Amino acid sequence: MILAAYSRGRVSLDTKFIRGAMAAVGLGYNNCSKLCPPEIDVACHNGPESCTISGPADKVTEFVAKLTADGVFAKEVPCSNIAYHSRYIAAAVRDPKPRSDRWLSTSVPEEKWNEPRAKLCSAEYLTNNLLSPVHFEETSRLVPSNAVLVEIAPHGLLQAILKRSLPEYCKNIALTKRGHADNAVFLLDAIGQLYIEGFTPRIQALYPKVEFPVSTGTPHLSHHVEWMHSEYW
């Protein structure tokens, strides 16, 4: 997943797109799609009263201003001037390849999961993912009510949407947070939350393998271990 995220970011940088923009809108897909100008796509179906739009920067800015004037919440969101999940980035991915289906798809409606494009990973699946709206509202209904969801991304962008859209007993854990003072600490805290939820992450994968016997110059740790005498009886 991390390599896929890197590849997606790399191709986004290397491909020439129009100057795009995205915006969060306080309307569900059905209502927003009726109001959108033809140049703008509804990129993400976030919930009954929330979606994200994507398109040319000037058109998105104009539409956001109109919605705001009409009393509808609308705010542009950072997207590096790339209109993700829209027709405007079709040039990003070429030479599609097949994949196995091992997750719930949010880029293909459930009734089309048996079609070839829903059974693709790698380039073809990600091409469809980049160009299609995100059917998060529809797919989130299939998530068990006691699920633990781990968001793997450069930033926990979906955390607010997950809290609003999923059952209250679901646990949402982000591995990174933009602007945090120390993301290494944030990651370790997230791993700790997984332990609390009953999982056993293999944290040894985060560190170099220790070869035994260790060299004679390896510092001792014993002097760092002390009894805690904070309570007396």
Number of helices: 7
Q: Globular, elongated, flat, extended or rod-shaped: what is the shape?
A: elongated
Number of domains: 2
Task: Report how far apart the termini are.
Answer: 53 Å
Strand content: 5-15%
Mean pLDDT over the residues: 84
Indicate the CATH topology of the largest domain: Malonyl-Coenzyme A Acyl Carrier Protein, domain 2
Unreliable segments of 5+ consecutive residues: none
User: How many β-strands, per DSSP?
Assistant: 6
> How is the largest sheet built, in terms of strand order?
2-3-1-4
Helix and strand topology:
Elements: H1 2-14, E1 20-25, H2 29-35, E2 41-47, E3 50-56, H3 57-69, E4 74-77, H4 122-131, H5 136-140, E5 148-151, H6 159-165, E6 171-174, H7 183-196
Parallel strand pairs: 5-6
Antiparallel strand pairs: 1-3, 1-4, 2-3
Please supply descriptive tags for the structure shown above:
233 residues, alpha+beta, Malonyl-Coenzyme A Acyl Carrier Protein, domain 2, four-stranded antiparallel β-sheet, two-stranded parallel sheet, 30% helix, 14% strand, Malonyl-CoA:ACP transacylase (MAT) domain-containing protein, PKS_NRPS_Biosynth_Enz
